[in-house]
Fold:
Amino acid sequence: MDTIALEIANHYYREIHQYKDIFGVPFNTAFMGISNYIPMGRVLGSTPDGRLAGEPSSEGVSPYVGTDMGTPLAAMRSAAKINQEIHSGGTLLNLRLNHDLVATKRGQANLGAMIQAFFALGAFHVQFNTISSKILRKAQENPEAYKDLLVRVAGYSTQFVNLSKSMQDAIIARTEHGEL
Structure:
């Protein structure tokens, strides 16, 4: 799958880069859907990764929900294969980690090493949520009790209870990695 993604990413760059803005500068490419991956998915047909028509697409260079069955490191290695220097509009990788992975000093050091390794591979944008699905579902059921619960959405953080139900469900659906 990485080979196909690279071929598409490179084709996307070549096609877009041949057009110029009003100053004569070639347009930039990006893989940063911010929050538009949900409405875009509503009008997008089924895709070969198993995504059904109408479901949210993947966000940026993040794996489609449920397809990142390995470790977060595997997703990071895959995302880093895209030439991130040419996609200067940005690339976005969202990962969700089990809170226990980063609850200790050792876990935090492991996360730091993981991020450094990702950047050493040429990548430059990754963001994490470490809130369990259980807590997120409790926040959906009882928003008054979770007003201060912040989540990383896609390029920004906000209070979970202020998000639409579809965005909350999309965040909950992200794979919660339990090992590094």
